[in-house]
Design goal:
The chain has seven helices and 22 strands. By secondary structure, the protein is α+β, with helices and mostly antiparallel strands. The strands form four sheets. Strands 11, 14, 15, 16, 17, 18, 19, 20, 21 and 22 form a ten-stranded antiparallel sheet that branches. Strands 1-2-3-4-5 form a five-stranded antiparallel sheet, covered by helices on one side. Strand 7 and strand 8 form a beta hairpin. Helix 2 packs across helix 3. The structure holds zinc ion. The site of zinc ion has 5 residues, from loops.
Amino acid sequence: MKKAKDILKKMNAGVVSSCKKACNIHVLSRIVLWIAIAMVVAAVCVVVFYKPVRETVFVSPEIHTVIDVKSGDTLSKILTEQGFNMRDINAISKNLKQDADFATLRPGRDKFDFVRPKEGEAISKIIIENGPWNRIEIDCGNPEAWQCQKIQIERDTRLAYKEGEIAQGSSFYLSALDAGIPEGLILDVYDLLAFEMDFERDIRAGQKFYVLYEENFASGKKVDNGHVLAVSFDALRGNVQMYRYVKPDGHAGYYDEHGNGAIKSLKRTPINNAKVTSNFSKGRKHPVLGFTRAHKGVDFRAPTGTPIPAAGAGRVIARSFNRGHGNFVKIRHNGTFETLYAHMSKFAKGVNVGTMVRQGQIIGYSGSTGLSTGPHLHYEIIKNGVHVNPMTVKLPAIDNLDANNKKLFMEKKKQLDSTMESLKNNPSRIVRLTDIEIPTAVTVAEPKK
Ligand SMILES: [Zn+2]
């Protein structure tokens, strides 16, 4: 017992003496502790004072969930996946139909953006991107009422000028690509020039051409191309020029340099860029019958199944089969002109006797039915009951300008010409469509003296 007490005493004494020895160490650790506290306070201060700056600089509090519309998607499926209930889905789809005329989803093109104000909160806004120039915004106001708004994205339309010439052994298409004309626009130019030229026979090396067209920008970025505003081509029969002009009533059309309608009632070549394999003639040896017979139309090379567009607007007056023409369609365009399309492999759906067709509407597909040696389109133009040469017949314009519009057109043409001249000399210059608008309202309806 005594021994144990002694041991305890010794232990206590030991603790006291070691405490006394450690006094210097205690002072040191206190200093370290104060420094640490000071650093923590400083760190807290940094966080408190800099937090608002960081928020405005790089973090948007909104949370976006972007969904691309895939084939098989429905509005209801997409909304259900985002956690919407039936009541909301019905309200949203009703609003979309009523306020934005939006009913069908386009897979691969439309995009949904679900916006939450903060992580974990309910979706407060849905943005549907449908097409480069349209956006629909659906906002959830209070209390839980969805409101739909269609927003047109502002277009900044600029003008681009390209010129080129037909290279040796090349086509208009390839030469136009070389000149930097976008592919889609080349097809528009084809459509315009096909009223006046034959791309198979009228093309020669060295022929010069130019195009003035619109380029649409949004927030400084190019989105797509707009209209062809002017086109010129040195064709064999002379220079072909066309200008786009919008009448004060809003109707747009193409006119030649004198203000005459450039869009003709019929196209000389219904299929763009198709090679002519046989011309109109009063007498030629028939390839199947073997004896000399008039060729009452023009043959265009067209692999089986090539879509055949109507050369002009009109009413289908025959959709039938005969031994010579095989499957053929005949269209009456007006009191003067009819056209006929022969050797079709099949007719287009919905094209029957009595159907009204527009210019460019597909009426059938090429083939080799009837008396034919291979797939092609045999095309005839009949004027007042007489077969005429589609390549040379004078075709009436669909739309000619009245005196007032002609005056306005000539002003517009001058502007387009000087714009092209300036872009030619300075291609990097930015010219906007709004820069060349003419004050139509002022000049219209000027009283005659
Ligand atoms: Zn033929």
